[in-house]
Amino acid sequence: MADWKEGMxxxxxxxxxxxGYLHVGGARTALFNFLFARHHGGRFILRIEDTDRxxxxxxxLAEIFTSLKWLGLQWDEGPEAGGDAGPYFQSQRTALYxxxxxxxxxxxxxxxxxxxxxxxxxxxxxxxxxxxxQGSGYDRHCRSLAPGDSEKLLAAGKSYIVRLKVPDARAVxxxxxxxxxxxxxxxxxxxxxLLKSDGFPTYHLANVVDDYLMGISHVLRGDEWIASxxxxxxxxxxxxxxxxxxxxxxxxxxxxxxxxxxxxxAASVLDYQRAGFLPEALRNFxxxxxxxxxxxxxxxxxxxxxxxxxxxxxxxxxxxxxxTKLEWMNGVxxxxxxxxxxxxxxxxxxxxxxxxxxxxxxxxxxxxxIAMFRERSRKVSEIAASSLYFFRxxxxxxxxxxxxxxxxxxxxxxxALLERLAIQEPFAAPxxxxxxxxxxxxxxxxxxxxxxxxxLAVSGVSFGPGLFEMLEALGRExxxxxxxxxxxxxxxxxxxxx
Length: 498
Ligand code: GLU
Hints:
By secondary structure, this protein is mainly alpha-helical. It has 20 helices and eleven strands.
């Protein structure tokens, strides 16, 4: 937007290409645009850059919408939301880009290039052979075609692309709101393509035309686009438009300093959902990738982030994607969640674990289990995975724990427990604890001699929620069955001599 002044509400956009899933880098860009717009009382536009039909993936589009909504980044204008500057799919705006390319042709700021693919390939091969650094790229062959010749080729139906006339060696400068002043030499820039031979615009043309027509005041995007910005500046110039302000977000690196890979941080937003992360935790974590609110504040609500977000506090240096920190943060948010609000997600995770259908029928029971595991979990998926023994008997016993707690000396104690638990009333945590303490005293053993084998017998592992709470939730029948099973297991082991 040509005439944006300090204090005016900004207009920003997130402009993903639906060529793959929305990864965390893209989500961070969307988030910063969202926070910036909200902080300054501006508008956040979603625009779909889908002119590359070869790489277009319809599922990717749905994923973008779902991911943004899951993260709570509702756009003010765009697909579904509507708005005055639509349509918001570039594929529905191609006539507009063609018209603008024509305009530049008519003004002599662009030209038709009829060079064949073959000629361009030969050119590249030659340049490579000569190891040309400077001046490599298109040799501007068609830039000097006489207008008459160009018209003749056009009339003969020869296929062409439209290129921008990049001015000869001169500085192309812009001020990046995060990185400061940046200057490129136009001699480094090719006569870039605006319109492809199929009549579709390139990213550069469509992006500039839309940013202008949609009144974008600030372009906030990933730093991989920084080399495109001088090209865009030249396109703005050619149209006689004032460019928007630019800010390029720092790159996100893996913890080892390398690039993010699918395994390390570059997974899709929905992969994080599937892996049991909470949207508010991922959002908070993403906000801190390159932005710091000041002080040592880290865990913040969306409102707090909106209040604190400014570009001045976005750093230029690379941000590091630290999975351990994300897990920690997720744990913090998990503790703050009500059991009620976790139920749908944990239930979905349980459902994927092939439990008998009836196992998940009792909602009150499910909530009890979630409450027991929430504080010792960092992820929704962990709650589901570590609580499986509430729904089916353990499939085996942790070996190391077995060697320690399933010794022959445990047999008479388990027998005593079986007898007493069968008649214990009420079968409730405090009373069960008293039963265990009393029996330990009678047998002059530490309570651990009863508690550890019981825990291993009912859960298969040596850690988990408080034992008595667990026994109460499992119920008498299950506890007795599992103790008997464990008893059989210990006795059989004894005979084998292990
Ligand atoms: N479509 C580009 C992308 O996929 C947009 C880049 C930009 O924000 O200008 O990221």
